[in-house]
Write a structure and sequence with these properties.
Layout lengths: L4 E3 L10 E3 L1 H16 L5 H22 L8 H9 L5
Antiparallel strand pairs: 1-2
């Protein structure tokens, strides 16, 4: 699956289509399976979890690719202390 796909549900998000990226669809299906196995049915919860887990995976990949900024404790402390919060 390479394109985003939409999910239409009348009782979720005022009936507006919910669009998922392929990665979000992956986690939507996994979370839905887990919920059914547990005897639950909460689609908004599944949607939120799918988006959350997809974001974690994207962030992890960006980190592994070096596409993030990191600070030492000292650098972060200096940065915070330099902010004018008034």
């Amino acid at each position: 699956m390479t394109e985003a796909q939409a999910l239409n549900l009348e009782n979720v998000d005022e009936g507006k289509p919910i669009t998922f990226t392929p990665l979000e669809w992956k986690y939507f299906v996994l979370e839905l399976k887990d919920m059914f196995a547990a005897g639950e049915f909460d689609i908004p919860k599944v949607i939120n979890a799918a988006r959350f887990y997809a974001q974690i995976e994207r962030s992890t990949q960006q980190y592994k690719q070096g596409k993030c900024v990191t600070f030492t404790d000292k650098e972060w402390e200096d940065f915070v202390n330099a902010q004018d919060l008034h």
